[in-house]
User: Fold these one by one.
Assistant:
Number 1:
Amino acid sequence: MRKRRLLTTPYLAFILCGTVIPLLAILYYALVDKNGSFTLSNLASVADPVHLKALGLSLLLAFFCTLICLLLALPLGLMLRKNGDKNRNMVIFLLILPMWMNFLLRTIAWKILLQRTGVINTLLGSLGLGRLDIINTPGAVVLGMVYDFLPFMILPIYNVMVKIDNSLVEAAYDLGASPAKVIRDVLLPLSVPGIISGITMTFVPAMTSFAISEILGGGNIYLIGNIIEGEFLRGGSRNVGAGLSMVMMIFILISMALLNKFDKNGEGTVV
Amino acid sequence: MANILELVNISKSFDNELILDELNLEIRENTFMTLLGPSGCGKTTTLRIIGGFTRQDSGQVLFQGKDITELPPNKRQFNTVFQKYALFPHMNVGENIAYGLKISGKSKSYIDSKIEYALKLVNMDGYRNRAVSALSGGQQQRIAIARAIVNEPKVLLLDEPLGALDLKLRQELQYELIRLKNELGITFIYVTHDQEEALTMSDTVVVMNQGYIQQMGSPENIYNEPENAFVATFIGDSNIIDSLMLRDRLVQICGTAFPCVDEGFGINRPVDVVIRPEDVILDEPGRGQLDGVVTHLVFQGVHYEMEVMAGGFEWLVQSTQIQPVGKEVSLRVDPENIQIMSKPASEDEEAMVIDA
């Protein structure tokens, strides 16, 4: 018994160094001012109009990113369910392939594609179709987020959907349900754990990302992640940065708790 | 009685393997018909083609005389009870039973009364609000049956519904299915590999092997007069002995002439003889038709099973009277218990369709 407990040591050490200590450090910085005396002003700084606006925009973009990913992943999951194993694995492999490349590089690639004189606009121009003017807009940021985070939505949904026993689908069909009703009454409800998990894994990184908005937003789009980054790295106050991080974490924890209420079995719980 | 269902020249292959070859089957209204055979014989495929879950490569499915080949399962007036219950795990017992009725737009009061009626019918009164996962296998299968019959299907399809249950429960549910069939007055098509189940419940048994119907008839007919060696061995235990039909009503088994009741096989024709182990009567040496020695003895509860070496053949014998190993005995078979079968000319012919 003691030996077995010994095996857990590396994980405990990792949790301690990787999660507990950094969190405590953030908590400490969030609750003190520059001179080290206790204050709540760092937390309260979220009420600053600039910060509130960034938080609102982050929420909005993360919401759209999650929604688009969900709308893309659900039909794909349903289609892959019907396919044989061989096709299925190939499609999943191709979808995951871009993830093997650095995510900053992928985002920079989109910047080049979307530029005013970029590949897409040159192509559209030569076809006489006008221009796609979305670089440096929230639209470009959402596009980048969807591109980067889509696999995190697809994989959990796919995993749950392919495991649904086909006899349940046949039973619903047998009882008179049309194919659309089979999806509504059987396939979607049974996919809820995967959907919850996918939403969590897409929404949280979209909410906290700052690199995508910086690269595809051209420095015009301030998400809460950009504000926090600025506070830490660009001459701001690290106490304010820590305070905002704390607030956002609480915010995300609350939304995840709400989300998990839908998932009665808790199978898809990530956070 | 009219035919409710007709399968006409149905063929089906999977991955170039022929599962059903020009199968023809007529199913009469209001019968309990069982498709019986070993795994891979095509019985489940036949059921799935009737239900619309599998599309035949060629041939027609006629329901009340109309071709329903193009109809998807949700448009067919049949309901299915699946082998692994297939209850919806995200719905409780009542919601599962109500599903088909809700889809067809029945009123709430109608659905309510139907759920109560169906629960009573399968002896599951009071389980309406239970979670499916809280039920045992036998209870789940009862609910699956209830879910199917509330829709008042013209035909109920059952795909080895008792396969996953233990013996005692299986026997109990067998009697309940017979009762249900009689109360509901609908056609049951039942798939199983269990010959006892088939004999217990069916009005008509269809014995299948390798995509062909081997024999079709009442349980008594199938058991007492198997038409070929496959049916004889698949249904119950049997002694199948190479023999010679000397003339009408006389067959030479193991070198001894036995009177029998069959005619029309010709003179001095080789035949297969089927004798059920319970039909072999053991007596004191010299008092029967063929003398032999007991070589094995096993107690099986309702009877003793013995093997008797006689005339160069090891006879399987079942009797409530014990005969110890090594004892000399004489065996006797009543003429009407000797079943004569023509020898198959080739293996192909063995698998051929034999009309009942």
Number 2:
Amino acid sequence: MEALGLLFEGFAHAFTPLNLLFVMIGCLLGTAVGVLPGLGSSMAVALLLPMTFALDPTAAFIMFAGVYFGGLFGDSTMAILMNTPGQASAIASTFEGHKMARAGRAPQALATAAIGAFIGGMVSCILVVFLAPALADFSANFGPAEFFALALFAFVATSSVVADSVLKGLASLVLGLGIATVGIDSVSGTERFSFGVPQLFDGISLVTVTVAVLALGEVFHIASRIRRDPAARAMRPAGRPFLSRAEFREALPAWLRGTGIGLPFGVVPVGGADVPTFIAYGTERSLDRRRKDPQFGKGAIRGLAAPEAAGNATTGTAMGALLALGLPVSATAAIMLAAFQQYGLQPGPLLFERAPELVWGLLASFFLAMIVLLILNLPFAPLWAKLLLIPRPYLYGGIAVFCGLGVYATSSSTFDLFMLLTIGLLGFVMRRYKVPLAPLLIGMVLGPLAETSLRDALLSSGGDYGVFVAGPIPVVIYVLLAIALAISIAGRIRARARQDV
Amino acid sequence: MAVYAVVAAVSITAATVFSFQSASAGNDLRAALTVIAPAGVGGGWDSFAREQQQAMRGAGIVNNVQVVNIPGAGGTIGLSTFSTMHGQANTIMATGAVMLGGIALNDSPVDLSDTRPIARIAEDYNALVVSADAPYDSMEDLIAAWSEDPDGIVWTGGSAGSIDHLIIAQLALDQDLPASEITFIPKSGGGEAIQTLLAGTTDVAVTGYNEVEDQIAAGRVKALAVSSPERLEGVDIPTLSELGYAVDLVNWRGLLAPPGITDEEFAELEAIVAETRESAEWQESLQRNRWEDSFLTGPELLEFIDEDQARTTALIEELGL
């Protein structure tokens, strides 16, 4: 219970009016940046980095915590309302969240997302407070063989989004895997699909593809249909601005499951918060199939609740990993690491001893940031939903501008803008011919993870394939995978047999 | 709320746009200067550029300093943009050992001779670390095991062709081991490299000493050697050179001026950089980042860059990259 005492000291440290103000500013800024497509919280933290020279460490980190979590709360807002996610971790929220908005349940969808993010973040923060030192040992169990098994598991877990039209789904997935291979191969230094263009040497960033395919593709699509079907898609937010008791009860298990899925991912460096959001979405979807009245595809509240909770649960433990291990598992965490170094502090096993008042103050400020964000986001949900009342030409024109801004701000390169436009057109064509977009993004997220872990494992074992089943964790994952596949195949055979009768 | 979104977006763009505008207007170098960091936010060059920015501004040497990031391809995207900024004296760019690797690795059509190097400013050193329960207690143990089974020891560090990788190549050549047989797992930073070490995926990590200092102090990893020419102050780890290994690559960082500027402008930039180096603010950031001062200018600098480029290119070829 020593941790609890230290945490309360941290609260005492964080609870000054000035620090509360910094939390507020950070949360507002983070939300604002998260809402804009292409601008993630890493960008906001990077721009704030020079502030660290003027502020004392506690105040600066408290503000960063606000920005970090604010970005994760904010990115789902546009994902739900406009189908234009701010960053990769919000992709999974578009699938059902945007359908909810279309069905006139935008405020409820936003509230679901906000509460999900709150639950996920809170649980993970509590876990970090009590288990930060143990995290170090846990993460040491994860090598490339384990990552590879996880990646395979994630592919299967998310395959349900491919299943609607197998051919088109697979085409989209392969396209995503292909885009992910562009650039100089990190192990051999070979150029892959870069055509000698130096701007492609580092590959195509996931942010550019996400913004192009989802946001810009949507803009083109709307523009192409604007005079053809104007009335059909008028999305008037209707109903009460908050969740009903029934909705809350419906979403609660999904929030908790999502949190459970997200927690372990923060500690292991497998590409940040996007992988667990897909897994959480896939899990909910397969659970939904077995219910009497499947909700997925019509705006299922669970399909939104789970990925939101998973994404934020990952963030919390990721911050724990940064503090306890000095291991930055996301871009934002990497920049926060730089900020720590500005103060001459090195996150890692010794930080808890060297600067306890800072660490516990920061952990306390996570809780404050969560609460502030929930207070900010819940009442504003109906207000945000009013964005949908803006006439569409202006609304989507604005989105297009922000897409360009976001991508240009990260790279200062016009090449990326052309790439944005090209991939945006690709997204439009895919929409036009009803090719699902999610598999492309899943391929881009999971492909590199599977590839690097496969190669790292083989390099490390000297080419011995036995390494993939050498440890207990991968074996357990493969067994789970086999069971899941068997159940799903059995279910399908039974369904077919019934049809025959 | 939309108001906040707009304000944030406008200020973010404004920052980026103005920093470019200020680069192309005005002649007074001490009024406004732009430092290009040819890497993404949070990387080594980025923090170097931002520390320079703070020192120049804090010491009142330059009024308004902006940092612009042009990431990509080991700094060569930034370099090729920079090499076209003819005569724009109020834009300077960070450079260093990693860029020389990038030039060799990517067969870049431009190199540092397309710019006017101002100074080498600081460097940091690498440490060779193994996990705490590894069977190696000294470099000797490690080299013995390595000589027996050249591709059996799994190394890790930064990206392929990075300074970490090149140090291993130099060590291999020094021991008459074939550099092309090195098993190297590239990771995107010291943190990730240490993680693979602790998970047992790799045997030895070569990474910046300042990135692993605390892990060493906490007893999670053992340091076998550091790559500095002399022992680091207050650090009880032998250097590679005192152990008799001919490894002399260091991770240096410096600043470049664009081509086509007048000699007066170049002299003014040199003066600014030299004054910044002397400032208390810069001395403090050297200490904070655990960088070592390695100031070098003029003809010696050009000579050093030529040598280092040749050496880097040769090593990358040996590695078969």
